[in-house]
Request: fold
Amino acid sequence: MIRLPSRNILTIWVLLSLLTPIRGQNGLNTTCWQLASAENVTQISYPVNGYVVYYITWSWFVHTPVCLGNGPSGLRMTGDFILVLTAFALPAVIFSTVIPRRWRLDMPQRFLTVGRSRVGNISKLFLSIPAICVVATVDMIGWITCIMTFAGPMAFSGVLEMLLDFRVVSFLERNRESPAKERLEAIVALLCGNYDQDPDDPTARIHSSLIPFQLTKASLESTKSRLVTILNSQVSFGTTIGLPAVFFLGGFWYNAGQTNPRGAVSYGIFLMVLVIVTIISGTLLAGNSPHTVSVLLGNRHVKRTHGRGILLSDVYDSELHPVAMWDRGFSKYQWLKNTMMWQQQGAFQDAVRVDVGSWAAITAAAWLLVATPCLLSLTLSYLVPWPWFGSSSLVLTTYLASQTWLILVALVVAYLDAPLCTIWRPFDLLPKAASQSLLSRSLLVISTFLTGGATFLAAFGTVFASGYHLSDGYGEELIWTVPVSSWVKPPSKRLVVVYSETTTQTYADYLANMTQYLPLGAVILTCVICFLGWWYHEALRIALKDVVENIEE
Reply:
């Protein structure tokens, strides 16, 4: 049997084909506004000095077909709206492929094999192509939603691993007199610390393959060559992160310069959370793909199956599998704790151990990385076109609150020396906790329910924001800026915005500054983080290569 090529190219093709027929809202529904003015059903409000807003009641709106888009409501195909989708959606797909994961949706292998029967092969071809397009699209949408949902724990774990990488490399640079085998073991932990150790622990096989039992001059040179090969086999930061970031920021800045760009730009700033998580993932020393290390092992000691259910399969067809991004810091910490240098309880343990102050710094850094784009997007949604806590503000506030809780959960679980998935099995944390009283059990159960609620809210906020901006909707001013306070009113008193305008040049200049400087701040933030990530990654790689080259017997 011959296995057909991967479905990666089809993913981009399907998303492009889906984006093409989508229609966008070309500004406000002017026909609805003109009809409301003619029938004298509008109400006037001045929410801020220099701005006037015209309302109609919800009941009049829903009984007027032209306002719901069933008449000449101004809906039309717009190239700018398609560009919004391609500038934001496609880079999100590219960024999501950089972040490691274990499972993916995939077609069963029997649909992707070629047999002897021509009729059967043609039938499989016509059945598999549309099926794999749908599966690939659902897989990408689901994975992007998963990344945005657990962005906080992913950032926390990534920052933790960055700190561990820096401390280990710095220690090895300062202590070149340490035994060669111990130094090699620590370097292997840096390069392979993201591989899953449960249930089939590959540590012994990796050590026996990369670190010889007896170090001689020839075996040491071979080992050093293998370690440098592992480093060189990793895809460069510029290829995986830099080019997609330029594409994303270019499309984002173009949309920021268009007329009335608030909704699209606010969504673009919100998606920068995904970009920042990807940047963190690209700065880590341990590569995502395990294939190079698997080849160096020289065998195929596979005990686990490569499928889970009908449509789930391993992302990497290898005996090694990277842990999820939200557990990478925990995994590397475990690898380092199992090294001889750590178990000797000497200077290495003192230099690498994460103390209370370090945990606080990691938590603060992770929160700032995730919260800053959310706060910029929230500020833009709240201030423009007038200060008002509307639907957009509520979604972003809920998302930020859920990420704050998930980061705190990741902190507690990591401090108790357990993977993040343990939060769904709260009683597994009891042996690690100081107390096993009824109060501790109750708090763990409550924490699990709160974590489930935060996960749901984060996923809902991601899907709602993406679905609104990538669909027709009822117009930007109808749903996205409707005041939250009006939700509790009956339909006969609930108000809908149909028209708004500035009345003073001062406020018009203020809006222009907000719509310019807030997106500019988001672009500068992303560029700075991207540059710092590239510099950190390259500097650490060069330092680690220097450490490897200077290892002697």
